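Example 3.2
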Amino acid sequence: MLELIDVKKTFNPGTINAKKALQGVNLHLNPGDFVTIIGGNGAGKSTVMNAIAGVWPIDSGIIRIDGKEVMSLPEYKRAKYLGRVFQDPMMGTAATMEIQENLAIAARRGKHRTLRWGISSAEKKKFREQLAILNLGLEDRLTAKVGLLSGGQRQALTLLMATLNEPKLLLLDEHTAALDPKTAKKVLELTDSIIQEKKLTAMMVTHNMKDAIAHGNRLIMMHEGKIIFDVSGEEKKALTVEALLAKFSQSSGQEFASDRALLS
């Protein structure tokens, strides 16, 4: 469902501020894989996400989604293949629009637009059913402005919007980092539930090692723009934070130095 072959990206090349963000990343995701990505500051985690989403062009390499090379496609054209949830709960929704209007926009992502009434009765029924899954009471607030929702409610709504059309690949970029622990746990439970129910292929960047171990069927650790550790199945289930830190030191020759991750 996703294939990265020798993907490289350098920011500010040829200057004193040059930064090799991706140094030949190779990655293959099978349909249904749920991969968590962990790493220190500047390891390349979010850079990989942005490369897949087409936020900027890569320097070299191949990116395939569901067998199709997408390097030449701009970000808006890749949207029909991807669902994405950002770290900031404010980024995934339009605050001044109603809940049902946000969902209607998500439902039309990547589709041909026509001149007709914005939201049909059938769509409203579908939206209520989908919102009920979140168990947040939003199914009874279709006409409420999204800006009135809490951060956790907005992130849950963004997650629903990102998966409404069952994308080829779901990208979760530290999507619980801005939430309090209780709300983050709820959003992660929803994430697991939606991914399993819809049998989605997903990548989740996180700074929380416990979450990286507890969620998904595969874990990848990045360092200095490279994948240095890739584990799945029973081996992943048996991991502990201590074992993960030891594996990082063994693979990179350095101590893990992300305060944010260690303090989680």
